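User: Can you predict the 3D structure for this chain?
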Amino acid sequence: MLEHLNDEEFYQFCMDNRDWRIERDADHQISIMPPASSESGAANGELNYQLAHWNRQHAQGIVFDSSAGFTLSMGAMLSPDASWIAQARWDALSADDRRGFARICPDFVAELLSPTDRLTETMRKLEHWLEAGAQLGWLVAPATESVYVFEPGQPVRPVVGFDQDLVAGPLLPGFRLQLRRLRLT
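Assistant: Here is the predicted structure, written as structure tokens:
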């Protein structure tokens, strides 16, 4: 029954269940996720802080936290843990497309692998982001101190070790994620 909800009905379902973390895939299958653990929430807060701090200095776009949902062209509604959209792309959206779950794919998305997440499922989610138009995706796994970098047309690139900074390249010029600050201990 829930897989047959149109966009407005799905939005209302989410509003009626505001305390739930809800996503919908391209096949309209709804996923309800548990709240993030305290450690994951702390790491996610740090990730969003670093991205927002960079954006405040460079003023090139808009940063969104994990509570923002985006409706993608294939019908999925996903919520990355952190994301960024270039200002010109955001400004080009109509007021209607900005409301609810904005009808746009972020240029950059980051997903934080929590202890309850499955690596293969979360990697597939990053692939969905790229298929929808994201230019850069990071899957950050604090428990193993590793990051998987996703870019269109490129194989997934693992980065191992949190004793380094992760550079976002030309998409987010000057953004360096200080991985050590995402350590769980």
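Helices lie at 7-16, 38-58, 87-92, 95-98, 119-132. Residues 162 and 180 are 5 Å apart (CA to CA).
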